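Q: I'm a student working through a structural biology exercise. My instructor gave each of us a protein and asked us to get a predicted structure, then write a short paragraph describing it. Mine is Dehydrogenase. I'm not confident about reading structure output yet, so if you can add a plain explanation after the tokens, that would really help. Here is the sequence I was given:
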Amino acid sequence: MTGIADGAGAVTATPAAGTPVQPPSTMGLGVSLPPTDSAAKTSGTFPYAADLWAEGLLWAAVLRAPHPHARIVSIDTKQAVDMPGVRAVVTHTDVPGDASHGRRVADRPVFAKDLVRHHGEPIAAVAADHPDTARLAAAAIAVEYEVLEPVTDPEQAFSAEPLHPDGNLVRHIPLAFGDPDVVGEVIVEGLYRIGRQDPAPIGAEAGLAVPRPDGGVEIYTASTDPHADRDLAAACFGLEPERVKVVVTGVPGAMGEREDPGMQLPLGLLALRTGHPVKLAATREESFLGHAHRHPTLLRYRHHADSQGKLVKVEAQILLDSGAYADSSADTLAAAVSFACGPYVVPHAFIEGWAVRTNNPPSGHVRGEGAMQVCAAYEGQMDKLAAKLGLDPVEIRMRNVMATGDLLPTGQTVTCPAPVAELLQAVRDAPLPTLPKDDPEEEWLLPGGLEGAGDPAAVRRGVGYALGMVHMLGAEGRDEVSTATVKVTGPVATVICAAVETGQGFTTLARQIVQDVLGIEEVHVAPIDTDQPPAGPASRGRHTWVSGGAVERAAKMVRTQLLQPLAHTFGMSTELLSIADGKITSYDGVLSTTVEEALEGKELWATAQCRPHPTEPLDETGQGDAFVGLAYCAVRAVVDVDIEIGAVRVVDMTVAQDVGRVLNPRQLKARIEAGVAQGIGAALTENLRTSRGVVRHPDLTGYALPTALDIPDVRIVKLVEERDVVAPFGAKAASAVPVVTTPAAVAAAVRAATGRPVNRLPIRPQAAVVNRG
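A: Happy to help. First, here is the predicted structure for Dehydrogenase. I'll explain a few features afterward.
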């Protein structure tokens, strides 16, 4: 049976001739099982952190710095402390434990002490009886600043005075692969800039901290990595980890590790100080200022090719703006440098990458980090090569695509399925949408609309292609273990796993896995807290692979417990028994019973771990087997551009993706569509703008997210189900790679329509204007 995708993206299957048609299963893997929380979310009853309440509740507010770089001369909290209704004010002097924290490097203070390093950095926090009182008290804290000149250009960071005791350089990777003296017959160069995309979650950060009788604290928040958050908090509070508990509430959208520890840590400090539960619901402005953003990136490229368009050498310099603190910049840089050549065979590559501190807003993990920035650049280079050689943009890509067995510039062999040529061919062969002139009713869809300022005669259509790749799980030696427990009591199974549901569908997948292995229809996933064993962060497809693998192993152990008594009774091994659609049958048909009958009066459980094969850090020349697995995507974008006013409308997005195995067709389609939407935002509208380090318009009017009118139908024309043998179920991460590939495809389409270079994302209107004279 071959899995394919129709034009609407629904996965179908074609049975072999003569195969009896079986009624479709309603549970297990491969079924579009609906999420259990969909009704609660659509009806508004789903429990988000902003909805929580506790007896004796106090409200928190955080005072944030108005300057991107300043020396703190003094902090006077007296006026705030004396305000009626104020219960506590905390600053850097009130942090009993570690004064700094960080995901990878502990370089970020809980509260600024001597220096402010970015606009919006926390200075103090207040707890009061009413949220308005808390905000007024925070505003009443008198801080005297000596304003300093900010370093906002990452190129200046190399020569500027150190902004941090650790210096301005976060990481430097000089990747060297092959012969540096090789020169191609054809050479193209390019300079590319990528803007600061914000995760812009549906709901802003919120949390509730509740003091415990043992002197500890419980923090209720939309964490995507609760155990890491617990350890950060315990270190800050000067407590043992077992005295701090993080309880995960509903996550209102996440694009990776999007939560702001600078919100959670003040909450816990205030709860411990006051002895009362304390709640904070950030405003949208505070959300923009507090959490990490996609790294703005400057990229210089030189591609060498022979006269037939075969790549010979790629040279590149990549500069990431980390903002004030390191966060996950080292990981982002490793991905950017490693994938700087894209899913193409490049025999010689010399890539130099830097991540530097500035006084700009903090950068961190956002879906497709590192890979998205370089994709826009190397695909721009491929279009330049095609134009210089007079080749079709698809043809030059076809001559260079990667396949299984090829080498990355890091020297790592691609051992997973890499059907890049198949993906590109699928989007190339898909029918193109009709032109507006063929359907007069569609004229209003032109850039600017029917009543807009543009002239329909000035509209040009462009078609662009892009190929992208991402890595799955962590990299460079990170231990990616996850633990899960499956309990069965009568006809009900329960999954206990600390893998956070961030919208990626893990809770649905966990139910499907247990249904598939045990034939039990009613499966519940327990709420998550740090009393459970850790499962790691919800990013890079980790939970599908690692946590899903742990659930499967635990379920299989329970399956063995269930089948062993039956197998013993009938004198056969458990391998000769099968479970399907709630029934247990033997290979010869002698045994036939239901799972419910076999479970009657029993309580079975098992705990298991899943740990992928180890990786290694990149060495001093950027070489090493740093990645567990890779996923690929091809995107064709069709755009209409008004070349007089620079307006761009995305007409069609066609996607072919390497997914390994389809586990939930509807869920997979939604993830791909969401990734394309986020990619269109990065291509055309999303850029958190700053002026000398100060964030301009930190709200959803100044930050332009794409709407439903900006996103066309996404046609998924092919899902390649070539299973990765080292991955549980053979499935690959699905969300990040369309985010990575879409901006490059849109930029290529605008280049095709205008003939302009389009080397900056998001694309400015002036970059799409053409002189018609």
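A: Here are two points you could use in your paragraph. Residues 1-22 have pLDDT under 50 and may be disordered. The CA atoms of residues 269 and 627 lie 38 Å apart. It's a good idea to check both against the output above yourself.
Q: Great, thank you!
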